Amino acid sequence: MAIWKLHGDGTIQPGAVVKPDERLGWGKMFGLGAQHVVAMFGATFLVPLITGFPIPATLFFSGVGTLLFLLITGNRLPSYLGSSFAFISPVLASKAGGDIGKALFGIMLTGILLAIVGAVVHLAGSRWIDALMPPVMTGTIVMLIGFNLAGAAWSSSAQSVPLDASGACLPDASTGCQITTTITGGFAAAPLTGWITILAIVLITVLFKGLIGRLSILLGVIVGYLAALIQGQVDFAAVGSADWIGLPHFQLPTPDFTVAALFLPVVLVLIAENVGHVKSVSLMTGHNYDKTMGRALLADGVATTLAGFGGGSGTTTYAENIGVMAATKVYSTALYWIAGFIAIVLSFIPKFGQAIATIPAGVIGAAGTVLYGMIGLLGARIWIDNKVAFTNPVNLIPAAIGLIMGIANFTFTLGSMTFGGVTVGTVTALVLYHLMRSIAKARGTDITDDTAQDGPTFPDYEPDALH
């Protein structure tokens, strides 16, 4: 377990670098640790807002998961674990009647499988991951998960049947009952507020550099919130009735293996994210973390399992915090201990969680419009960075088929199990890719593609919440 030694005299000089096992004065460290909370917060609280999960519980398991990550990786790998956007699609698909129990079970299963993968990587190395998911497939999976959520960014709705005084449904000539559909979420719920939020995100991104520019989505949400407040779209009733101090709302999962297929593709995305982020930290710090790769996957798996067991969102390593490290040149793991403890403290303030929950649907829909598109295009960037050759039909055809299935949300039912677009698209793309590649090699019709055997390359920093 690495310990921290004082960097110089406890201050940092221009151009200097604070290593993972070093620290500055504790006053400076607290301020820098709080900055990491700000960096992760915009993305971490959006996931429970979109999925309907309790915000305090999500913050609690985010903080605890970060501390567990540091312990399991021997306090050597600086990373923060926040809510993963890869879980949004399967969570929304698995929620029944607003009950998150089945979704929690799916998150827990994902965490267990990721932990097993981490243990195998720790013992056997990561080459088999590169062979299973070459860059063309990694980019495809990330892209279809982002674009599969396009409909959720626009609107969500609820249907109701009006009843008369006797409790009978009102008659309708065609259906027997008059069904009323109400838009309950997404951009369509408040288009003006949504446009204001999107324009704020765009302008902040291009007007400001440094941390402000990196937090464009969080700051854009604040601008959209103010616009919604002026229009009377914010209800503070729950904030006023909430306590200042209290336990987060914990909930046990509801065992249901029929949701397992929905969450399987998320494991592949979490593997790609963790591998990419570990490589990014290696480049920035000059440390070789290849031998820590398995521990990182195991740690994220344990954190996700714990979150699913207790009522929180699934976790992943956060690019925003990697970006903060790149900007400050302070790579001390002590910052993440501080950030993790701050997140845990915030989770015990119910009034804080209720205040976040007042963010209206139009603002969330606008933020989702930006985030889901950025997640999808991150897949394209993986293709570009790895020079994937789409002149090769072995790359082109599986990716094309998988994307359409994911975006159109192809859904099939087999017995009691339902397979949604993300699962169908992911499995189809992987099976077709390896099948076509094997046949092409056997027949001598394959086109040389050097990138097919290389692991995916992730950029050192992705702006604001690409998970």
Describe it:
The structure is a single chain. This protein has helices at residues 26-51, 55-72, 88-94, 101-124, 127-132, 135-148, 150-154, 191-207, 210-214, 216-230, 237-241, 260-285, 293-310, 319-328, 334-347, 350-357, 361-385, 393-407, 421-443; strands at 5-6, 22-23, 81-83, 156-160, 180-185, 315-317, 412-414, 417-419. The protein is mainly alpha-helical. The strands form four sheets. Strands 1-2 form a two-stranded parallel ribbon. A two-stranded antiparallel ribbon has the order 3-6. A two-stranded antiparallel sheet has the order 4-5. α1 crosses α2, α4 (101-124) runs antiparallel to α13 (293-310) and α8 crosses α17 (361-385). The radius of gyration is 23 Å and the shape is globular. It starts with a strand and ends in a 24-residue tail after the last helix.
Short description:
The protein has 467 residues and is mainly alpha-helical. The protein is 60% helix and 6% strand. The protein is built from 19 helices and eight strands.
Sheet with the most strands, sense and barrel status = 2 strands, parallel
Number of strands: 8
- How many DSSP helices? 19
Please mark out the parts with pLDDT under 50 across 5 or more consecutive residues, or reply none: 458-466
Q: Order of helices and strands, N to C?
A: EEHHEHHHHHEEHHHHHHEHHHHHEEH
> Within the largest sheet, what's the order of strands?
1-2
**Could you tell me how far the N terminus lies from the C terminus, measured between alpha carbons in angstroms?**
29 Å
Overall SS class = mainly alpha
Any idea what the radius of gyration is? 23 Å
Percent range of helical residues: 55-70%
Strand content: 5-15%
Mean of all residue-level pLDDT scores: 81
Shape: globular
